[in-house]
Amino acid sequence: MSGAVEARLAELGLTLPQVVPPLAAYQPAVQSGVYVYTAGQLPMVEGKLPTTGKVGAEVTAEEAKELARTCALNALAAVKSVAGDLDRIVRVVKVTGFVASATDFTGQPGVLNGASELLGEVLGDKGVHARSAVGVAVLPLDAPVEVEIQVELDKA
Asked: Alpha-carbon distance 55 to 144, whole Å?
């Protein structure tokens, strides 16, 4: 099933990817009441990380911002896997992002803008959210960025 949100993705030249399979004992997304909570989404493209390493060392902030966009796109795929239709999204409530950071890198909010901006471009006002941007020492598979989202769905 596809609707206005997926049409908007197409307008932006984006395709909703397949849900990234779990790397361990968890689900990509779960629904509780009208909320969907995604697991942390890595910037996987066709089953692989396009780059690895620490932001501010092996990965530039600009590259990491693009990777955060990919994480958000993967998160939307995870939401669709349980909601059935992205048009059911009432709003994105919260985005939490983790940036594998070199010890002197402090630009985590700018990196996570990649995810936030994508959600705004795709969902408009429904994409406006609260957010945390956290610098960490290392992420699974040496990914530079990981993003999780929580969304509210309509009651349909």
From this structure: 6
Which residue carries 């594998």 as its tokens? 100
Residue recorded with tokens 């796109």: 73
Q: Report whether 149 contacts 95 (CB < 8 A).
A: yes
Per-residue pLDDT of the chain (156 residues; tens, 9 = 90+): 468 999 999 999 999 999 988 889 999 999 999 999 999 999 999 999 999 999 999 999 999 999 999 999 999 999 999 999 999 999 999 999 999 999 999 999 999 999 999 999 999 999 999 999 999 999 999 999 999 999 999 987
Report if pTM > 0.90: yes
The owner of tokens 């598979």 is 141
In this structure, are residues 40 and 146 in contact, taking their beta carbons and an 8 Å threshold?
A: yes
